[in-house]
Amino acid sequence: MHPLATSFLVFLCTFGAALLGMFLRRVLPEHHLAPESKEVVRVAMGLVASTVALILGLLVYSSKGFYDTQTAEVTQLSANVVLLDRILAHYGPEGAEARADLRTSIGRQIDMMWAENNSHAPGVQTKAPSGEGIIERIDELAPKDDRQKALQSQARSLAFQMGQTRLLMYQQRSVPVPKPLMMILVFWLFALFISFGLFAPSNATVAVSLCVAALAVCGAVYLIVEMYYPYGGLIQVSSAPLKAALAQLGQ
Fold this sequence. Notes:
Helices cover 75% and strands 0% of the residues. The protein is mainly alpha-helical. The two termini are 43 Å apart.
């Protein structure tokens, strides 16, 4: 599900639960709203609130770690691209075709990984950018001396490393948050906001406060879901390192 749609659904559930609690306050018998009942609900919902805060914090931390990992992979790939191009340049004119293939391959990867229609579509199937063509070009080189043989070996090793990174980026371009976890979290939030509205006075100040609280919670959920789609949406890994590397190829 799209991060905006998910966060909007969470907002409807939480703020709607608060309004439902305010409605129940008017229809429930008075003994249900006695101080003793209020104290039990307060203690029980305090436990739920602590659990929700812990889970939200862990999910934000986990999604931020995933996002940072993708950023590091893009940066590492960019450095390896420039290094491989330099190695092929030092190899000699025979490496020109491999350098051209490298430039074309990286340009296609940028177009594919940061395509707008692929931003939040984990089910989209496209060919993984493994860079096998570059490896084949390197294998076709015929070293004339020990120096070229060493450069070919280094280029082959670097190309395999790049292929591994590119496949990893492709497979990790979207990792949806588990639906059971999200459903349980929404249920906890629903119960928590009902308790907020159940014992809250019905006035504009309380309604606005509960609305702001619901917005804060759905904002946290948006951050969690959005950062699990690192190559699309509002919060995405920058393609600038790869574009900068692409601009240096062939020079």
